[in-house]
Amino acid sequence: IQFVIKPHPLDKKVNRFNYENVTNLNDENIHAVIDCVNTILLYNSGVGLLALAHNKPVYTVGNAYYSFNGLLTKQVEKLDIIIKDLDEDTLFNLNEDKTINLFNWLSLRPT
User: Which pTM value belongs to this model?
Assistant: First the structure.
């Protein structure tokens, strides 16, 4: 399994993971990165919303507000869960209708 790590833009520590199966990114376009990966693992980040827009399965370590109790993302405590899902080709299934509903709600909700 190859891991691609793109730190938060404000994180000044570059290439902090020096392993054979890790690719460290810095200034690459996040949309291009999302298009090239099988799944996304993150803490609470707007990248999760972008990944949902790209129809990618999203695994969260934190309690992202867009998870809706596991409806749109899979909350995990250990990396082993994602590795197992990748190995067994049983990635978290994205519910496209519910994702569209989320984006409609985000764009139409009163401010």
Answer: 0.79
